[in-house]
Predict the structure.
Amino acid sequence: QLQLQESGPGLVKSSETLSLTCTVSGGSVSSSSYYWGWIRQSPGKGLEWIASIYYSGSTYYNPSLKSRVTISEDTSKNQFSLKLSSVTAADTAVYYCARLTPLRDFDYWGQGTLVTVSS
Amino acid sequence: QSALTQPASVSGSPGQSITISCTGTSSDVGGYKYVSWYQQNPGKAPKLMIYEVSNRPSGVSNRFSGSKSGTTASLTISGVQAEDEADYYCSSYTSRSTWVFGGGTKLTVL
């Protein structure tokens, strides 16, 4: 059974860089045809797609966040990561990592991790 | 990119059928078969309920069905049950090789 687990600081200071890692078990981030992605949910709000990375290494970003986001993968550790720079209070959210299938749906999700941006 | 449009809330009595709409554009919902639906219970991660417009993953009740007409996709729950009370989100792949979610719909079972 595939499992994903987010990890990283739960508190980040305003203007600094948020860094999260998703560790995949029961499967491989280098599995052909799959994407891996990050989605966030601000308190009481809806889901927002942030970024995805294809098994080949191609990356895709939400246009509204593109200038501040980097997604990457470490196949040796079976992980993929998110970096979001110049954070503000608006970036306070639960951040989820997920697997995307060739049919472009998010079929496995991590449990989510709350990141709070403090001033 | 703009979020897909969903009603903020829907409600139904047990046993009734309810439908949640998800309206996009020709660049997302209308242009691809890659529309999916997710159920989210409070404090939990979303769960995939429908993929590729109308397909159910293994283990999802056949009371859940999906369809699409033009730029609007729909999720129908037949014979709604108390356990179906949750937030529901649609998602679509887009022409810019990005993904977009709907704003979410809160289902209340009366």
Chain B is about 0% helix and 45% strand.
